[in-house]
Design goal:
heterodimer; A: alpha+beta; FAD/NAD(P)-binding domain; Glutaredoxin; seven-stranded mixed sheet; 14 helices; 27 strands; about 25% helix; about 25% strand; B: mainly alpha; about 60% helix; about 0% strand
Chain lengths: ~575, ~80
């Protein structure tokens, strides 16, 4: 496939358009002179290149595992402009595990309703109102600069993280046993080395280029104007999407609310638009007035013109370099699958790196990071490409069918299912992952091996949600009806003292003391058992990233140990054995 | 289920006339819209992807020129 690395990625950071934002003051993080000048290169277990949302999340996850992490970023502030604004339920759950989900949820705007307009009328509305019994909503909207700021502040609480601003990686030398880096600062260069390099330096990844690797795919021939406006208005917190509206004929437009009365407005411009011209306020203002009405009072906070592409690297692992986020894969922005999937990348990677660094798992465990996340990237690329083809039809007949769908959607439910203004991000389910132990007994429901845990309300000493009890390490969830036998408790203690420890969560009424490695929760309204198709005796094994990797109708110590061995790459992955 | 290619319409001449009449007084563009809507309505009614795929393949048959120099597959 050809290399399509044009300077036109989705939401590029725009220099020279920093207006004085009314609602947000960019923090400036100080450059600090490194201690390495003149000395020999220091060695780090992990270096993260790039302090965007994905790199920062990686650093926090690793630090919470007790791993020292050096983060290098060439800039000294957070995202300029709102860029990624929709954060998914799964992202919030991952950040809950890392101790900063609540801050995003508090600051973000909750929304459930979307409206779709065609020409001059609304053709339908949808409600993403999730089923009850989840802590987090389907989405919140929050400007990327807030997310980065909150992540920086979380990282700074962790002594394992050394966050260095205006430190730019200018050279990479991969070796069998480490990676050597040259880092440029305002005061000169220094060398540093690491066991593992996490490459999180964005879509145009300089490090990817230095390593001679490429990200290939498809560029879309269309341009979009993206504008953040500050507006106090009665518009509800809903996602409004227009196909061919009267105020912007033959194109599409989007209006979406963010925090601080900031609104995201997106205008499709077509391929022939001049990006420099379209960014000028005198071009933007008439478009906004036509959309929002002559009486609307607003101020422009930020604007950018972008095109987008769908592409990915062939492999997300290049020796000791592990590629995450936009550096590894790029999708069209319809569906909020960029930053959200990047955060899922590092959720997948951090625990594997911990086990490899400590020598408890072989390096080939990291190949499963590649296979699981390229699978997810392909799903996101396919989904967003389809959205793009619907939103910006590429041929006359494609446009005819698109408009026919929209005309039918006003009257007929079936056609609404065909309308595609972006399929919003849901986590990929790694059904074919080599880390899964296939079911030996029948189960109903969505919690197949490879799926991230569905939350459910519970009671217990650690929180009111199932996800409070899962993650970071392996966890066994056991549904019981009778008091736990001495033999069972002995087995659970044995699991907790294995090299790769597995703690237990017992679902059931209080019935006697438990060892320290086990917690008890109750399922007062039965939602947990329903979501997991559980009867007494059922056992689920969760990975440290809260994904199901095995489940059984009855607990068996040897089976659990075999599943943990499989999920940590200790059984050669070519052997697809059934436990 | 497989695509039924045997006669299935009781009064073929009536059907055909109504299909043509459907497009009376329409511009080419309007006709294209009506055709697209009709395809979408019927496709949803059928629902079965296997039948729909067979119908799509049958519809495309003989449309693309068969000479080797212009066949689509040659260009892929």
């Amino acid at each position: 496939m050809p290399i399509l690395d044009r300077r036109c990625d989705a939401y590029p950071p725009v220099r020279g358009f920093i207006r004085c934002m009314k609602t947000y003051t960019q923090p400036v993080y100080p450059y600090i002179k490194p201690t390495e000048f003149g000395g020999s290169p220091q060695h780090w277990p992990v270096i993260v290149a790039g302090a965007g949302p994905v790199g920062l999340t990686a650093a926090i996850d690793l630090a919470l595992r007790g791993i020292d992490v050096l983060v290098l970023d060439e800039d000294d502030t957070v995202s300029v402009g709102s860029r990624a604004i929709c954060w998914s339920k799964r992202t919030l759950e991952i950040l809950d595990r890392l101790g900063c989900g609540e801050r995003l949820a508090q600051k973000g705007v909750r929304w459930n309703v979307g409206r779709v307009f065609f020409r001059d009328e609304q053709i339908y509305r949808f409600d993403l109102q999730p089923e009850p019994g989840h802590r987090r909503p389907a989405f919140i909207n929050l400007q990327q600069y807030y997310v980065e700021q909150f992540l920086v502040e979380r990282a700074k609480e962790l002594p394992e993280v050394d966050l260095r601003w205006r430190h730019k990686v200018v050279g990479v030398t991969p070796r069998d046993d480490r990676v050597a880096l040259r880092v440029s600062t305002p005061e000169g260069e220094y060398g540093v080395q690491t066991d593992w390099l996490i490459v999180a330096d964005g879509s145009k990844s300089a490090i990817r280029g230095m390593l001679g690797l490429e990200s290939a795919g498809q560029v879309f021939h269309d341009r979009f104007l993206i504008v953040d406006i500050h507006m106090t208005s009665d518009f509800p917190a809903e996602r409004w999407f227009w196909f061919d509206p009267p105020f912007h004929r033959n194109q599409s437009a989007l209006l979406h609310r963010q925090a601080d009365d900031v609104w995201r407005v997106d205008f499709q411009l077509g391929w022939d638009a001049d990006p420099e011209e379209e960014k000028k306020p005198e071009r933007i203002l008439p478009r906004l007035r036509a959309m929002l009405g002559e009486d609307a009072r607003f101020e422009i906070e930020w604007a950018s013109v972008y095109t987008f592409q769908c592409r990915r690297m062939h492999s997300f692992r290049g020796g000791r370099a592990l590629f995450v986020g936009d550096a590894a894969h790029l999708v069209s922005p319809f569906g909020a699958r960029g930053a959200n999937s990047g955060i899922q990348d590092v959720d997948n990677l951090a625990w594997k790196l911990e086990l490899v660094l400590s020598g408890q798992a072989p390096q080939r465990l990291l190949d499963s990071y590649d296979s699981e996340r390229t699978f997810a990237a392909d799903e996101n690329i396919l989904t967003t490409t389809r959205s793009t083809d619907f939103i910006t039809p590429k041929s006359k007949v494609s446009r005819t069918f698109r408009d026919a769908v929209l005309m039918l959607a006003k009257r007929h439910a079936f056609a609404r299912r065909l309308v595609n203004s972006g399929r919003l991000s849901v986590p990929a389910i790694a059904v074919d992952s080599p880390l899964n132990t296939p079911d030996a007994e029948p189960f109903a429901g969505r919690m197949v091996p490879g799926a991230p845990a569905l939350d459910a309300p519970v009671t217990g000493d650690r929180g009111e949600w199932l996800l409070d009890y899962l993650g970071n390490g392996f966890t066994l969830l056991l549904f019981t009806a009778t008091p736990s036998s001495e033999a069972l408790l002995r087995d659970l203690k044995a699991l907790a003292s294995d090299a790769i420890a597995c703690n237990s969560v017992i679902v059931g009424a209080a019935n006697g003391p438990l060892p320290a490695c086990a917690r008890r929760i109750a399922d007062p309204n039965g939602m947990l058992a329903e979501r997991y198709d559980a009867r007494p005796g059922v056992a689920y094994l969760f990975r440290p990233d809260q994904h199901v990797c095995a489940r059984w109708r009855a607990f068996d110590l040897a089976a659990v140990r075999a599943a943990i061995a499989k999920a940590t790459g200790q059984i050669p992955m070519a052997e697809r054995q059934v436990a | 289920m497989t695509l039924n290619l045997e006669p299935n319409i009781a009064s073929p001449d009536d059907f055909y006339q109504e299909l043509i009449d459907l497009h009376r007084d329409l511009t080419d563009e309007q006709s294209a819209t009506v055709n697209a809507k009709l395809i979408l309505l019927l496709s949803n009614h059928i629902g079965d992807m296997e039948v729909l795929r067979s119908a799509m393949a049958a519809a495309r048959e003989d449309v693309v020129a068969t000479s080797a120099s212009t066949s689509l597959s040659e260009h892929r």
